[in-house]
Structure formats: structure tokens, C-alpha cells
Amino acid sequence: MFSKSKINEPGPKQSSALDTTAAPKPAAPAPVPPAGDSMAQPAPAAAKQKPIPSVLGSDLTVTGNLRTTGDIQVEGTVKGDIRAHLLTVGEQATIEGEIIADDIVITGRVIGKVRGLKVRLTSTARVEGDIIHKTIAIESGAHFEGSVHRAEDPLATGTGNKTAAASSGNSATATSGARAKTAASTGAAPRKAADADATDKASEKASDKAS
Fold first, then answer.
1. Where are the domains of the chain?
2. Which of 52, 106, 113, 182 could form a disulfide with 89 if both were Cys (CB 3.0 to 4.6 A apart)?
């Protein structure tokens, strides 16, 4: 018997690796880094922290002026002027000098002029001096000896000096004027007395001639 010829039968399919007409494989997706990886996302900007104030302890005594653009908390004794952004005077603190700051909180003792945009005297505050401020708060029980002046820019030291100079000039002018008036009045009295004496002498001479 004859077997069926296999000449016309299709041959086996070629391998896909050799098939140039086959569609290219899709590219593999990029690997996703884990959520905890610090390189995956940019680190958020660190929150701006409030600067730590400079603290002068209760056992510390400073002689001289202090100046800073930051905050100062005084618990000891300072003999000199202080310039700061925020100044806190502790309950046991003593400052002998002028203090200038944007914000001033006084719970202790201050002997000298106080200049601040915002000034607050607590119930334990003891201030001996003038206060120049934009806003002020004085709690019940605070001890204060001096005058209080409001100014739009109390930190400008020249304003107070000009005001003081003007007031002293006015008082000096008034005093000088009063002295001048007094001198004029005292000078007028001797002149009147001299005129009266001259009149009496003339009348006496006339009576002597007549006799």
C-alpha cells in the first residue's frame, strides 16, 4: 500500500525568535521605589524654629550694655542699657539702665527709661522711670513711678531727646522772661523814688528863696 505523500503538507512553524515580523514586546515598567525610600520624594523644608532666648541666670551680675537682635530673658542683675527684640525681666531681676525692645515684659525691677512697641507690666513689676510706648498694658498691683508717653516710633531715641530738649527750652525761656519782668519792675521803683526826691528838693529851694 502506498502512504500519503507529505510533500504538500505545511512544515512546522518557525520559532518566534527568528520571526522578524513579530510584534516587539512591551517595555518593562520602571521599578517603583518603596514608600519609605528617602530618595523617592524630596524632603520637605524644615519648619522654622523659634530662636532660643539668651538667659541671664539669677546668680549672674552684668556690668555694661547688652545688644542683640534676638530675645533676652534676664533673671539676674544688669547695670547697663539693653537693646533686644524681645526682653523679659524676671521677677527677681534688676536692671539699672535704659531698655529698648520691640516687646517688653516686666515682672521684676527696672530703674531707668523703658522704650518699646509693646510694653507689659505684670502685677509684680516695679518700674522707676519714664515709659515710651506704642501700646501698653499695666496689670493691677504693678508699681510705677514716672511718666507714660505714647509714640508711633518709641524705639527712635532721638524723639525723646528732642521732646525733652524742647520742654527744657520752654521752661528756661519762661523763667528768663519772668526774671526780666522782675528786673524791669525792680528797676522802675528806684527811678520813681529818685524823681520824687528831685521834686521835693526843688520845692524846698523855691520856698527858701521866697522866704
1. 54-155
2. 106
